[in-house]
Design a protein that fits this description.
Two copies of one chain form a homodimer. By secondary structure, chain A is α/β, with parallel strands linked by helices. The first copy, chain A, has 14 helices and twelve strands. The first copy, chain A, has helices at 21-34, 53-57, 62-69, 87-100, 120-127, 143-157, 162-181, 194-198, 227-233, 261-274, 291-300, 309-314, 331-335, 342-354; strands at 4-11, 45-49, 78-82, 106-114, 202-204, 207-208, 217-226, 238-247, 283-285, 325-326, 368-375, 380-388. Chain A has a ten-stranded mixed sheet, sandwiched between helices. The first copy, chain A, has a two-stranded antiparallel ribbon with strand order 5-6. In chain A, helix 1 (21-34) packs across helix 3 and helix 7 (162-181) crosses helix 11 (291-300). At the A-B interface, helix 2, helix 3, strand 3, helix 4 and strand 8 of A face helix 2, helix 3, strand 3, helix 4 and strand 8 of B. Strand 3 (78-82) of chain A pairs antiparallel with strand 3 (78-82) of chain B.
């Protein structure tokens, strides 16, 4: 298995866009290609994560249209993958396999989504198709509902009074909004307080508006290549040290909730492959689609003890100066969450951090980074470890 | 690169189904696993092709739900890929890379779709999202329209009078319906005549009803594994000798229509990898979504000279007793076309043929088989060569 490096990365501003998904992808991709010191003609294969292009703008099979927009020739296979909100990370894993397996030397991969432009009612309804159609979706459950249930399960499992847990969750939002202020590409760049969260409108009890990430439009892209090429082309290649993907069915099939088995198995695989432990991670972009989701993820990734993820936030352990900086980009909460693009945007941040190019949001001395992307109600999780020499 | 074998294959009857896509997939998958002399617990990774599960039954991210239905554990990555009507073949290519690259020894791959149950108006409209959303779809073009245009371009390019070409196209339908009679899993098992086609209702001039494949529900699955395992587990392993995937954008970007560049580049790759030429192919399952599509494909794959695909059908060169038997299964035309499953159903047929297990539709002495699957209006094509020792 060959070593795989991240060369250039690219990302649009997240928020509301009037561009099509193909156009947004091309914007991010051209940045990723240019910062790899490559030209589009150097790309040998393309993977695109996209979730609901058909509902969002009547576009399926988006990958070859992205390829055509970049002027790539017919020889370049262009493949769309979909794993709900983990789509781009699933795409990155396929691209990783293609380079590591010796099939291609330079692969472009990323994701694109127009989730904000379609509007909240349709986005909420279509996102819910990421749950199991036979056992869950028809009950009317949507993702705020799923994570509201997980919040109550979490409070009961770890015997934390709900008001206490809600305050810890609010601190997640406060932290990620504070981080997002430093990110010029973030959808929200405004500090909030615990009161902002706790006084905001109720969405799915006990989740309030500021417990939830926004709907977003955006795209992000990454160039993966062999170590040999990376050393030639860029001054600071970042390497994929470990990667794992886990799966699960409907919630009723998942044992041990609120813990997410698909994440824990993916993380175990990634750590084992990298020969690393959670203690080695300096900076992490994880899937904070809701504030409780960050707490659950930080524990499932081994960055905090089970039942103590909220406490870690309270103590400042997951921000600058703490043990590990979680979501320096602002996370899904403040940076935004264009679902099919999110996994690639996480890599964008980790690559910038490991290269020391993150400007005012730089995590000092970051050499090992982790991304965690969750699709559906725990049905697809990809965990990846990145390092720099 | 390790050699990759096809072990067991499975397929539902194509036609109208009241089963969900996950249930259909599980039916096909369990057959593929059982005929591989394996158990579900032996599966190490899963790839599922599916196109419009969200529109068809409100199900996205279908792969982990298929995995859960089969009882696969969280360690098994389950990935959905979508390449319009070529989805299952794109999935098979990803599965091939995963085994060939040394990442997994046993991978389950296939596709599932409920295109008939959703009804013709919505199916026609949603399928059209496989064209370019910015340049084509808004004009009102649907796939019968695309292939009607290609028919006229073809007639002009090769200077064949349209009535003559239409008769040749009708003969494609007659042949594939005749083949389908022998296939117990085919949607249509009824012989037709040239008159049936030419007297049928006009769909998109010059394409008539019997020039068009049906909407279908169905699933198909295949187990891919290493050569070593194949030799242990099954008496007659079939090997993937070559595989190629090509891409293209909107029709206006495609030079040289009615020839399909994405196909020609995919075929070139597959033949080169296999060290074979079109003359070596004994049996072929190709993408006859419309009768003209079979003619164009047979030429693009090198099985007939350009401009003479229709003549080859007239002369019986593409049926039993001819140079190469095209679509012994009945093809998309008679067997049916559950779009996300089609590529895997093609492999089902080729594997049966190469193993000499195709019963009354057996192509005598078939040792080299080819599958060709087209997605969108030429935007994604996968060509694969199979052989038996």
């Amino acid at each position: 298995m060959r070593r795989v490096a991240v060369l250039g990365v690219g990302m649009t501003k997240f928020g509301l866009s009037t561009k099509s998904q193909v156009e947004m992808f091309a914007e991010a991709a051209l940045e990723a290609i240019a910062t790899s010191n490559l030209k589009p003609r150097d790309i040998q294969a393309l993977y695109v994560g996209n979730v609901l292009g058909d509902f969002e703008e009547g576009q399926m099979n988006i990958a070859p249209f992205c390829a055509a927009e970049l002027g790539l020739p017919p020889e370049v296979p262009a493949t769309r993958v979909e794993g709900a909100c983990a789509s781009a990370s699933v795409a990155i894993r396929e691209a990783f396999l293609a380079v590591a397996g010796g099939f291609y030397d330079v692969v472009l991969v990323g994701g694109t989504e127009r989730a904000m432009a379609m509007g909240t009612p349709l986005a909420t309804r279509t996102f819910a198709m990421g749950t199991d159609g036979r056992y869950e979706e028809f009950t009317g459950i949507t993702f705020p509902g799923v994570f509201a249930l997980l919040t109550r399960l979490y409070a009961r499992e770890y015997n934390i009074p709900l008001p206490k847990l809600k305050e810890q969750m609010a601190l997640v939002a406060v932290k990620n909004h504070r981080h997002g202020v430093q990110n010029p590409l973030a959808q929200f760049r405004k500090e909030i307080t615990v009161e902002t969260v706790l006084n905001s409108v109720m969405i799915a009890d006990p989740l309030q508006l500021f417990d939830c990430c926004p709907f977003s439009d955006g795209a992000a892209a990454v160039v993966l290549a062999t170590e040999e090429l990376a050393r030639k082309l860029v001054p600071k290649p970042v390497y994929i040290l470990g990667i794992g993907q886990g799966s699960a069915g409907a919630l009723f099939r998942q044992k041990g909730l609120p813990r997410i088995k698909a994440r824990e198995t993916a993380a175990k695989k990634a750590y084992a492959m990298a020969g690393l432990t959670p203690q080695d991670v300096h900076v992490c972009e994880l899937h904070d689609c809701f504030t409780i989701a960050e707490i659950i993820a930080s524990e499932g990734l081994g960055l905090c003890e089970f039942g103590r993820g909220g406490e870690a936030v309270e103590k400042g352990e997951t921000t600058y100066g703490g043990r590990v900086v979680i979501n320096p980009s602002g996370g899904l909460k403040a940076k935004g969450h264009p679902i099919g693009a999110t996994g690639a945007a996480q890599v964008y941040e980790i690559a910038k951090q490991l290269r020391g190019e993150a400007g005012s949001r730089q995590v000092e001395g970051a050499r090992i980074g982790l991304t965690d992307t969750l699709g559906g109600d725990g049905s697809t999780v990809v965990v990846t470890l990145y390092g720099i020499e």
